[in-house]
């Protein structure tokens, strides 16, 4: 079982990133791949969760140990698998997610992709009062604050918007849901995929 990986980000897609270490490239699913755009070709450290099935072995990556701990608690809930847990992690302000569970806010929880009323109730039942050890600090990657490099801020806006929509699709949002927010996103003064993705998630959570 892997605890963490330290290596160079060599590829970023809407679905996953690739980290190369000792000549091997590891495909790792993360909540928001484009958040790591400024670290392409740079060294990072991610905490890992390894999911093993008969037909596949999948690695999930997290910037902090606290994020990994929250993910592990989420997938302990009946009805939430690793991919659903990752989608929830991407869609939520993590402190807000913990607050929603502690306050039994089912209407907030059902806004996540793949979370219906029954699963939201199960999340509260299983996790309420058990998240006190999860404290979130500002995310650090490679021991540095994330700063967008100029080469990424200069990325074409149209391409960034399309990449963000693909990332929303990867997180489990339907084409209909994405279409509803895409027009509004196009009208906003944003430039990077990460900005579009974060704003898109914010709009989807309000619906």
From TrEMBL:
Residues 156-207 are annotated as: Domain III. GO terms for biological process: DNA recombination; DNA repair. CDD domains: UBA_RuvA_C (cd14332). InterPro entries: DNA_helicase_Holl-junc_RuvA_I (IPR013849), Hlx-hairpin-Hlx_DNA-bd_motif (IPR003583), NA-bd_OB-fold (IPR012340), RuvA (IPR000085), RuvA_2-like (IPR010994), RuvA_C (IPR011114), RuvA_C_sf (IPR036267). It holds the Pfam family HHH_5. Homotetramer. Forms an RuvA(8)-RuvB(12)-Holliday junction (HJ) complex. HJ DNA is sandwiched between 2 RuvA tetramers; dsDNA enters through RuvA and exits via RuvB. An RuvB hexamer assembles on each DNA strand where it exits the tetramer. Each RuvB hexamer is contacted by two RuvA subunits (via domain III) on 2 adjacent RuvB subunits; this complex drives branch migration. In the full resolvosome a probable DNA-RuvA(4)-RuvB(12)-RuvC(2) complex forms which resolves the HJ. GO terms for molecular function: ATP binding; four-way junction DNA binding; four-way junction helicase activity. The keyword DNA repair applies. The RuvA-RuvB-RuvC complex processes Holliday junction (HJ) DNA during genetic recombination and DNA repair, while the RuvA-RuvB complex plays an important role in the rescue of blocked DNA replication forks via replication fork reversal (RFR). RuvA specifically binds to HJ cruciform DNA, conferring on it an open structure. The RuvB hexamer acts as an ATP-dependent pump, pulling dsDNA into and through the RuvAB complex. HJ branch migration allows RuvC to scan DNA until it finds its consensus sequence, where it cleaves and resolves the cruciform DNA. Belongs to the RuvA family. Residues 72-91, 107-126 form the Helix-hairpin-helix DNA-binding motif class domain. The keyword Repeat does not apply. Has three domains with a flexible linker between the domains II and III and assumes an 'L' shape. Domain III is highly mobile and contacts RuvB. It is found in: Cytoplasm. SMART domains: HhH1 (SM00278). GO terms for cellular component: cytoplasm; Holliday junction helicase complex; Holliday junction resolvase complex. This is Holliday junction branch migration complex subunit RuvA. Keywords: ATP-binding, Cytoplasm, DNA damage, DNA recombination, DNA repair, DNA-binding, Helicase, Hydrolase, Nucleotide-binding.
């Amino acid at each position: 079982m892997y605890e963490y990986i330290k290596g160079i980000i060599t590829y970023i897609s809407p679905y996953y990133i690739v980290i190369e270490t000792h000549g091997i490239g590891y495909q790792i699913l993360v909540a928001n791949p484009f958040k790591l755009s400024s670290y392409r070709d740079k060294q990072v450290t991610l905490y890992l969760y390894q999911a093993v099935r008969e037909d596949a072995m999948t690695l999930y990556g997290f910037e902090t140990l606290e994020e990994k701990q929250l993910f592990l608690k989420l997938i302990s809930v009946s009805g939430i698998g690793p991919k659903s847990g990752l989608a929830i992690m991407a869609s939520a302000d993590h402190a807000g997610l913990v607050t929603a569970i502690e306050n039994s806010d089912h209407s907030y929880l059902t806004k996540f992709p793949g979370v219906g009323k029954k699963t939201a109730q199960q999340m509260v039942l299983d996790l309420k009062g058990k998240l006190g050890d999860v404290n979130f600090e500002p995310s650090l990657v490679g021991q540095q604050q994330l700063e967008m490099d100029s080469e990424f801020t200069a990325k074409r806006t149209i391409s960034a918007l399309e990449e963000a929509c693909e990332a929303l699709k990867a997180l489990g949002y339907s084409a209909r849901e994405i279409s509803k927010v895409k027009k509004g996103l196009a009208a906003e003064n944003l430039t990077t995929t990460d900005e579009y993705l974060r704003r898109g998630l914010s709009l989807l959570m309000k619906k």
